[in-house]
Design goal:
With 344 residues, the chain is an alpha/beta fold. The chain has helices at 13-16, 32-35, 51-54, 74-79, 92-110, 126-138, 147-153, 164-170, 194-199, 217-225, 245-250, 263-281, 303-313, 316-325, 330-335, and strands spanning 2-6, 21-25, 40-43, 61-64, 83-86, 118-122, 141-145, 173-176, 204-208, 229-233, 253-254.
Length: 344
Amino acid sequence: MKIVADNQIPYLADVLAREAQVVTMDGEGITPREVRDADILLVRTRTRCDRKLLEGSSVQLICTATIGYDHIDMEWCREQGIEVVTAAGCNARAVLQWVGAVLALHLSRRAAEPSDCTLGIVGVGNVGRLVAEYARSWGFKVLCSDPPREEAEGLGRAEGFVPLDELLVTADIVTLHPLLSREGSHPTYHLIGERELALMRPRTALINASRGEVIDTVALLSAISSKRLDCYLDVWEDEPNKISEELVRKAVISTFHIAGYSIQGKANASSIVMRALSERFGLPFTDWYPSEVVPTTPRPIGWEEMVAQIDTYCPLEEIDLKLKTQPSQFERFRKNYSLRKEFF
């Protein structure tokens, strides 16, 4: 059995080498030649898995150590009988804590308290649910928008769900957590464009830790330039190589797609991957978790306690300064980022 793996997925290679031939390499460097005789691909967002990469290969299973799967041509893989497994939810607490750091910083700059603010959450999946839960406990009024969930589960105002336009008009802070989709009944590509940005009240804070393409960069730059919005961004259109350096400079906080980069988030993703491999190929790692990582113990945390500790774990202004100083080094910074420890 041959496994081709992104070398940025931690903990796995040495363990899997006991059971298979494992080839690790930079995710952007995975080419048709490397995967031709591979049975399994272990990837992140930097590897585009489509006909161009996979046609004629022996790949049976793709495991992506990420929440999203917009880098995978799901329809083509389905047609070819290639199974795809994602690590949905693996780093939800890490992203929650990045959002917590943004909220703490933003409110301190406004001399405001959570009870003064309405938080709008767009996309209420694994991350959005956690943000909603903790935000309510911290005292924010919370509004949610997630049309697929609303339709599937019959959710409405009684559960805090409102139309997107109403959320944008009402919220003081908008945080984005949808999966990126370009097709279907509710596409999220450029979900936030010129019209949506114009609906937001002056000095609304816009947070994005989902995918850069959820926001129209040109429209966002115009909104920021007119002093209408404060932006806190972790993700960027056309990353890693063609991000808007102007947007990096103009956002209040710019980080290099590391909102989900925690020790436990990476360990969770690797554990999910191992379980999928074991179930598909009969490997002995169904309950495996890296021994060097202590799993997070979820717990409630008050606003004041969170604010007092968050900068130790997620120093946003330090990360922001690094990227603003050298935006061309986005990918190098990301690859060499020291993983954070989750603390709630």
